[in-house]
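Hypothesis: this fold can be encoded by more than one sequence.
Test: take the structure tokens below, design a sequence, compare later.
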């Protein structure tokens, strides 16, 4: 279903063609990272720490190296970036490749159960596995810190001895070093207005605390990488990644090589959701290859994925909101403490930006804390940090509306921000479809349908996200003599972006999508392109393709001018046709002129790079009906509708798929998924048998409503669609459970046991 405020008459944009990668994927011909095979390929395995916090006293690899069939062994000391005599100063290296290298292979200290220590390459996987047992590591076991609140205490053991708290008022700013040694790496604060007076003016005040657990992205394909360090000193990496150029940058820095000496070849990617942007294996396979003289491949097991890669943050949060008798928000206070895992860098900035994002608020305080704990280093997960904050804020907003006796959507509409109102960071809002989404939710048949059972509840929530961008994209278009084009980009395709980008080029050139052949190439074959993240590829890489297509039109107009013996200014281009202004009977279709290029100077090739400052703000909303079994606490989802301001749905079927996938992941996060850690930091549910993700049996049909409020930053008005939809579901489900049971849920996941405990506790206190 699509609602639009600005209908367009595009020929390609807004259609849903067969994806260019579809045939290969459904026939099994698509090549993923684990499919890489070559002569002499060795198999690698990683030795991981059995402790969640310990000093490495010594590593003896001699017995492993002596095992027949073992060709090479690597430790952190094989990385050029690691200086054995230098203490790692995290005040200097925070967020740098030096810190990344410590996560790839620990040099002095292991900081979580599963932290990589050493690696082996052997003629087969069995020998490599056997060799791991022969590596002798001596540890000094230390006390782990596994809870974000415990980690923030003054007397908590320091996980990184040299880290001090940085205070920031800019999300991506350097901050000011406070000099205070602490597990709190960063404190981000945004404040405006008079908070005390705002709460004095409130008729209703609601304040609650919330807790969430670490959860994993749950991609299908485990991390895998194959590396070959050639005799010429060049390193080639075949990998499953969301960003070939960022992997090239980090791998080259860790290995002490110029970036020009590293080539990264992207394979098809079996899901990422933000979790495949960080190098875990790439520098390791390169070192193993250099030492053995052969290519080396490492593919993680599912357990290694859970224990050795980056989940998203667990959190402790508080939210306090006041509103007057008319329903206007008078003040809001938000406290976010996010687990960063073993190294600084949680997505608390995203949570701070998102939490109060859907509301106009003149009196506000947001405090965000990035806290180091003895758990895997966190990585991005679809709208990083924002679902947690929305769970907290949207639950409180729902309760405020309830206490005021207001319809929850009326309350949100009354307090919606508009163009020029300030976001939590203080930056004025540009135009985005906040009112349009919320009005569509309020008017939708789902919202107005009656519930049919005593234990059923309906919940709503909205989610704000400032979509990313700005890292840059490049595109090259080669025009063929038959009028088709080859579109070359460096943006890894996760679910259809090569087609969405190709559609934009086709629209500019006035040709059909079947006449475009898009290819994602390696780092040697295209200009710099940032990672596939931030919902930016259809936007940023699309802009690069548009610019390249416009240059194609310009150059081909010059060729037409040569044939007509007129100036290039006398050539017009409309709907895929070149027209002579001096004689309108002189026309060439795009294909006709392409066939004459060899006679007028040769075929046309055009390249372009684009770096916009970001896609911009976006709003999503969810309505969910569910039923709670009062005897077991089990939740059954009865009906689900998700809404999104897409700006312009370039590829509507793709947009719907992204919306449904985001909702599905949010449902799993809300009801089932968590890292269950024992007291020593061991993950007790590190398999898909025990880590409970939803299946088709758990899900109803997820209905989608695409709302189109054109983005002025893009020629076709699009906003990006990969992330914002995962922001509201945690809160929407929590609000629905509250309305079904009469009990407010403040802890994730909301498993049957958690729901029963909450109901029992409420009954005993009443």
């Amino acid at each position: 279903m699509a609602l639009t405020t600005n209908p367009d008459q595009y020929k390609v944009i807004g259609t849903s063609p067969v994806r260019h990668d579809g045939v290969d994927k459904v026939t099994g011909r698509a090549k993923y990272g684990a499919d890489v095979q070559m002569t002499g390929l060795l198999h690698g395995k990683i030795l991981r720490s059995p402790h969640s916090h310990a000093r490495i006293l010594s590593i003896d690899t001699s017995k492993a190296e002596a095992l027949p069939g073992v060709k090479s062994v690597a430790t952190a000391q094989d990385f050029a970036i690691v200086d054995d005599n230098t203490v790692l100063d995290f005040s200097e290296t925070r967020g740098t490749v030096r810190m990344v290298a410590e996560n790839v292979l620990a040099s002095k200290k292991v900081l979580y159960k599963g932290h990589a220590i050493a690696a082996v390459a052997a003629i087969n996987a069995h020998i490599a596995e056997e060799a791991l047992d022969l590596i002798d590591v001596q540890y000094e076991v230390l006390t782990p810190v596994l809870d974000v609140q415990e980690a923030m205490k003054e007397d908590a053991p320091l996980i990184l001895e040299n880290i001090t708290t940085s205070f920031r008022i800019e999300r991506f700013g350097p901050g000011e070093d406070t000099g205070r040694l602490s597990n709190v790496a960063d404190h981000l604060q945004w404040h405006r207005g008079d908070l005390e007076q705002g709460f004095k003016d409130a008729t209703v005040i609601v304040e609650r605390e919330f807790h969430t657990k670490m959860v994993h992205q749950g991609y299908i394909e485990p991390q895998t990488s194959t590396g070959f360090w050639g005799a010429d000193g060049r390193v080639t990496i075949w990998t499953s990644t969301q960003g070939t150029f960022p992997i090239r940058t980090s791998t080259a820095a860790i290995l002490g090589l110029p970036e020009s000496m590293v080539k990264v070849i992207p394979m098809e990617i079996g899901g990422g959701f933000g979790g495949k942007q960080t190098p875990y294996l790439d520098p390791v396979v390169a070192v193993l290859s250099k030492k053995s003289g052969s290519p080396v491949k490492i593919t993680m097991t599912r357990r290694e994925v859970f224990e050795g890669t980056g989940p998203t943050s667990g959190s402790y949060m508080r939210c306090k909101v006041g509103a007057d008798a008319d329903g206007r928000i008078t003040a809001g206070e938000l406290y976010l403490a996010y687990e960063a895992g073993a190294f600084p860098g949680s997505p608390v900035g995203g949570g701070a930006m998102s939490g109060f994002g859907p509301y106009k608020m003149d009196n506000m305080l947001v405090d965000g804390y990035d806290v180091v704990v003895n758990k895997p280093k966190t990585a991005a997960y679809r709208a990083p940090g924002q679902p947690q904050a929305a769970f907290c804020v949207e639950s409180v907003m729902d309760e405020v509306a309830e206490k005021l006796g207001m319809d929850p959507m009326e309350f949100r509409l009354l307090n919606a921000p508009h163009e020029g109102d300030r976001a939590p960071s203080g930056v004025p809002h540009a135009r985005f479809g906040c009112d349009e989404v919320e009005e569509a939710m309020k008017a939708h048949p789902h919202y107005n349908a009656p519930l049919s059972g005593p234990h059923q509840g309906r919940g709503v929530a909205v989610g704000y996200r400032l979509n990313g961008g700005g890292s840059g994209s490049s595109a090259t278009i080669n025009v063929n003599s038959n009028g088709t084009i080859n579109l070359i980009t460096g943006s890894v395709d996760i679910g259809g972006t090569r087609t969405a980008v190709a559609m934009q080029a086709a629209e500019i050139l006035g040709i059909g999508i079947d006449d475009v052949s898009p290819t994602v190439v390696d780092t040697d074959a295209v200009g710099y392109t940032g990672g596939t993240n931030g919902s930016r590829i259809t936007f940023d890489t699309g802009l690069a393709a548009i610019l390249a297509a416009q240059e194609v039109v310009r150059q081909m107009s010059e060729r037409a001018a040569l044939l007509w013996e007129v100036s290039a200014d006398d050539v017009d281009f409309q709907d895929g046709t070149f027209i002579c202004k001096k004689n309108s009977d002189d026309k060439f279709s795009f294909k006709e002129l392409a066939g004459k290029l060899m006679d007028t100077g040769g075929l046309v090739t055009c390249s372009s790079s684009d770096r916009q400052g970001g896609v911009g703000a976006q709003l999503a909303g969810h309505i969910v009906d569910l039923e709670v079994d009062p005897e077991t606490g089990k939740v059954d989802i009865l009906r689900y509708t998700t809404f999104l301001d897409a700006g312009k749905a370039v590829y509507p079927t793709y947009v719907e798929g992204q919306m449904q996938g985001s909702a599905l992941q949010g449902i799993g996060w809300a009801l089932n998924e968590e890292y269950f850690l024992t007291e020593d930091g061991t993950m007790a549910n590190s398999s898909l048998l025990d880590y409970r993700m939803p299946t088709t049996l758990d899900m109803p049909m997820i209905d989608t409503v695409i709302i189109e409020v054109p983005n002025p930053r893009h020629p076709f008005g699009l906003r990006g669609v990969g992330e914002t939809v995962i922001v509201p579901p945690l809160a929407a489900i929590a609000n629905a459970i509250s309305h079904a049971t009469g009990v407010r849920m403040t802890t994730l996941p909301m498993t049957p046991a958690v729901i029963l405990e909450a109901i029992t506790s409420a009954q005993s206190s009443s």
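Residues 1-7 have pLDDT under 50 and may be disordered. Residues 537-564 form the longest helix (28 residues).
Hypothesis status: open.
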